[in-house]
Amino acid sequence: MPRFPGPGRGGRDILFLMRFLPVLITLATLHALGMAVPPDRDPSLNVVFDAPAKDFTGSCPLGNGRIGAMVFGGVNDERVVLNESTMWSGSPQDADREDAHLVLPEIRRLLLAGENKKAQELLQANFVCKGPGSGSGNGKDVQYGCYQKFADLTIKADTPAFTDYRRILNLDNAVGAVTFEAGGATYRREAFVSAPGKVFAYRFTADIPGRQSLTIGLSREERATVSTSDHGLAISGELNSGNSSVNGVNFGGAVEVVASGGQISHTSEQVSVKGADTVTIYFSAGTSFETANFQADAQHAVARAAQSNYEELKKQHVKDYQSFFHRVSLKLPGSGDMTTSTLQRMADVQKGTPDPSLAALYFNFGRYVLISSSRPDSPLPANLQGIWAEELQTPWNGDFHTDINVQMNYWPSETTNLSDCQKPLLTFIPKLVPNGEKTAKAYYGANGWVAHVITNPWAYTSPGEGADWGSTCTGGAWLCEHLWDHYAFTKDLTYLREVYPTLKGAAEFFTDALIQEPMHGWLVTAPSNSPENQYVNDKGEALSTCMGPAMDTEILHELFGNVIAASEALGTDEAFRAKLTDLKSKLAPIQIGHDGRIMEWLQEYKESDPHHRHSSHLYALYPSDQISLSKTPELAEAARKSLEGRGDMGTGWSLAWKVCFWARLHEGDHANKILLRLLRPVGGTGFDYHDAGGTYPNLFDAHPPFQIDGNFGATAGIAEMLMQSQTGVIELLPALPKEWAASGSVKGLCARGNVKVDFVWKDGKVISYKVYGPGAKNAKVVLPG
User: Fold this and answer.
1) Interhelix angle 356-373/342-350, nearest 10 degrees
2) Which residue, of 37, 205, 486, 643, has the fewest CB within 10 Å?
3) Are strands 606-607 and 199-206 parallel, antiparallel or unpaired?
4) Residues 394, 351: contact at Cβ < 8 Å?
5) DSSP 142
C-alpha cells in the first residue's frame, strides 16, 4: 500500500494532495525520464563490446537455466561455447572414513590441551576424506567429478572486409546481437537461449539477399562422437565416472540449421550453407543425469524450433525472460554513453570519471545471469561459474563450495525479487541429508547431518582432502540459512513445514557434536577452522585447525535461533526447542579483542595473513543480522575496525562481500569505493589471492579466474545500499553513496515479511515511496535521517 509522510485521513486529504503534489509530479517526471530512453539504448541495460572476444571473458553469456552459450562475436571465424547444467563427470561415492570417529577424542584432547599442531597432523592423517577427494580441485577424472563444457559450435563465414563492428548484450530482452558493414550490406546476427523453446538460437541475416555462406561444425576435445543429417548435427558421449564399475553421465546434443534461400550440404562433421538470405542455427542438449530421454528430447526441441516461426520463438523467449527481469527496475544518476564500450566505461571510472549508471548496469547484469543460470526448474544450483565454462577441467571443478561461494550465488535472489530462482538451491540442500547423516556418524558419532566445504551433484558431504581447508564443519548449517531466509521473505508456512526436518537435522548434529572449551565453559565446534585462513600460535607456527572459530559460533547462533523460530511458527517440537534455547545460551559469544576488532578465533592469535580474502568472522554482520548499528553498536564498531584491518583489496568475490559489509554499516561511500574497485577492468585469467579482483570485459567477475559469485555478491550489496530489512524495519537508502545522491528510483525490491518496495529519491532524500504486498500492513519504514 502507498505510504507518504504527511497528514492522515478524512478532511485532511485535500491538504495532503496539495502538499505532496510536487512530490507526485517529481515521481511521475523521473519515471517518465527513465522511460524516455528505450531499453535498447539504455546504458544501464546494455553490455557494449567494441570487438570480437579474444577469449571467453569477453564473450556474450546467454542461458535459460539449463542450456548456456557464450558467443564470441567473430565475423569470419565464430566460436560459441555450449553448456548444459548437468554436464558433470564423476559419480556417487562413499568418501567417508567409517572409523574416523575413533580418533576424534584424541584430536579434541589435543585441542583442549593447546596442542593444535599435533591435532592438525592427526586430523590430516585420519580425519580427511577417503580417496583423492576433489582431486585437489582437478577432479575431472576422479570420482568427485567436474563441471565441464558441453561442446564448441564453430561457424566459418564467407564475409568481405568489414567495418562499423558493434556487439551488444541487451539485458532487457536477453538477446545478444552483432552488427557490421561489409560489401555494401549491413549484417546482423542475434542469439538467445529460449526457456520455452528449450533451444539456443543464432540467426544470421543481411539487408542484401544471398549473402550468408557458412560452414557449421560441432566438436568436443574428448569422449564425444559427432554425426550429421541432412540439415543438422548430433553429438553424444559419456563422461568419466571415476569408477570403472559405474557408468558415467551420458550426454547428447543436436543442431538444426534452417536456411532461407541458398543450398545446404553436409560432410562427415559439418553443415555448409551457400548463398542464403537468412540462416538460423538451433541447438539443444541434455544428459542422463536428469532423464533417460535426453537425446530424443534435444532432437525434438531443435526440430520443433526449426519448424516454428523464428520471430514468434523470440517473442516467447522475451516474454518469459521479462516475467523475471521486469520485477525490478533501478535508475541511478547519469546516462553513460552507448557508443562507449563497457570495458572503456570501467577504465574511465578508474580514472575518476563518475558513472553511477555503470553500477546500475552491474546490478542488472547480476540479476540477468541469475535468471540465466538458475530458474525454478533448473536441475542444479548455479555453480562456481553459473552454467558457463569453456574447459573440460573447470577451475576448482566448477563445484559448489559451501564455505561461502554457492551461498553468495543466491544472496540477491530474495532482495532483488528473484525468490523463485533460488529454488534449485533450496531443493538441493535436503538432498545432502542422507549422505550428511552417514558423514555425521562416521566422523563425529553424532546424529543429524553435516556437510563440510565442498559438494557436487552427487551430494558429497565428507571433509575435503586437506585438513587445513577441508574440515570446516558448518557448510550445511550455512546452507540452512538460505532455507530459513526464503521463509523470512515469503512467510510461506507450507514451504517451512517441508524444509523443517532439514533445518532440525542440521541443528541435531551440533547438539551432539559441540564440546565445552576449558577457559569459559562455552560450547564450541572441534575440530574446525576459519575457512581457508591460518593463525600463528605462540611458537610461531602457522596453523588452521582449532576449536570454535568465530564463524562457526555465529552460524550456530543463527541456526539454533532459526530452528527455534521455525518450531514456534509451526507449533511443533516444544521439547527440542527448549533444548536448543538452552544450548544457544551456552554458545561462545562474539568476542572483541584488545585491538578493538572482532576475534576470528577463540584466542587472540596473530593472523598469518592480515589481509586474507575470507572475512568469515564477520558472518554475523552479513549475511546474518547478529551485528547491527542499531542493536549492537559496540560490535558494529568492532566489525568496522576488522574491515579496516582486512583492507580494501581482495579477490572478486571477497570485494563483493566487503560491499555488503560496508552497506550494513551504513557506509555508502566506502561500499561504493569497494564496488568501483571490483569494477576494475581485468585482462588476464591467472590466479592471485590478493590484489587481483576485478571485472572482465563481459562483466563476469574476476576472482581471478572467473567465478560468478562476485557478480551475485555485489548485486546483493547494491540492493543493501538501497534498502535493508534485517533489523525488523525497512530502511530506505541506508548506505547511499554521494555519487548516487542526486536522483534515482527503484521498483520491486523485496523486504523480509513478504513486502515489496518502490521509492524515488532526490538530493539524497526519499521523496516518494510505496510499500505493498501481503505483509505491507505490518511494515515499518525508516527514511534517511
Assistant:
1) 130
2) 37
3) unpaired
4) no
5) S
